[in-house]
Design a protein that fits this description.
Number of helices: 7
Oligomer: single chain
Order of helices and strands: HEHHEEEEEEHHEEEHHEEE
Structural class: alpha/beta
Largest sheet: 10 strands, mixed
Shape: rod-shaped
Distance between the termini: 97 Å
Radius of gyration: 32 Å
Number of strands: 13
Strand content: 25-35%
Strand order of the largest sheet: 6-5-4-7-8-9-10-11-12-13
């Protein structure tokens, strides 16, 4: 009888142990599961919210479960390699915090230009690296188009677009930049009526002064529709091509650069660029 009682006691203790172990294992599993994802952007800038949203979009497409999965089962190196395949990220480091959250530290690629080439559209960063123009990564940057090649990449235009962005007058004036070639960089104003041939990427300040002088001294008298092209590519002069009227051939009008002091734009009516 005593042995039978002892057996029941042992069986009861064993069942209690199994139940306790199960409860402990469940608690441990809960403690060791991924509680959520935190995205840390290195070198904070105005595109942080765009980058953070883009990171989460790509993680949501990751084929393996992350949130709620056991931390030891999550391969952070594999996740890093997955995220690094996207050109929007310069570098990615994944690690777990003591609170059980996955911390994703991202060094983003910062777009400087949006390029339209043939039927394609993409961004480039300061080094000319391409980034797909996906809706989740839309950034408001200067727009360029042109006849680009390996010897004449879009990054060649960066000195011009940076110069325009830093200049409060040109930044309001210019809607986009079109490059026929490296010696004929065309600024397309928001003002209806003409385009500006800026030539190459040299002497930008001098060309800006020449353009402002024409806007101040010539356009108020000739009108904004008198010329279809204003070229400041040549040193010491501005060449304006008259708009074709009927069968009349275009004329070239030279304005010698005299007294090219800084000038401000007159009151202008801006139109939305349709390109």
């Amino acid at each position: 009888m005593a042995k039978k009682i002892l057996g029941w006691v042992i069986l009861t203790l064993l069942l209690a142990y199994i139940i306790s172990a199960g409860i402990w294992a469940h608690a441990e599993a809960s403690r060791n599961s991924c509680k959520g994802i935190k995205v840390q952007i290195v070198e904070a800038n105005s595109t942080d919210s765009v980058t953070r949203r883009g990171v989460m979009n790509e993680i949501n497409r990751y084929p393996e479960k992350i949130v709620g999965a056991q931390i030891p089962s999550i391969n952070t190196k594999k996740l890093e390699q997955y995220l690094k395949t996207f050109p929007q990220f310069e570098d990615v480091v994944c690690s777990f915090t003591t609170s059980g959250h996955l911390n994703v530290k991202v060094i983003p690629m910062v777009p400087e230009l949006r390029v339209f080439e043939d039927s394609a559209s993409y961004y480039i960063n300061k080094d000319g690296k391409k980034m797909a123009s996906k809706a989740s990564f839309f950034v408001d940057v200067p727009v360029v188009s042109g006849n680009f090649s390996e010897t004449f990449p879009p990054s060649h235009l960066l000195p011009v677009t940076r110069f325009i962005s830093r200049d409060p007058v040109l930044n309001k004036l210019v809607g986009m930049v079109y490059a026929e070639d490296q010696d004929n960089i065309i600024l397309v104003p928001r003002i209806h009526g003409h385009v500006i041939n800026f030539g190459d990427t040299n002497r930008l300040g001098e060309k800006r002064r020449a353009l402002m002088a024409v806007y101040k001294k010539v356009m108020p008298y000739k009108g904004w529709d008198e010329y279809d092209t204003i070229s400041v590519k040549f040193r010491g002069q501005v060449v304006a091509t008259r708009r074709i009227k009927g069968n009349q051939k275009p004329q070239i009008v030279d304005f010698e650069e005299r007294d090219m002091e800084e000038a401000t734009l007159p009151d202008l009516t801006y139109t939305e660029n349709q390109n």
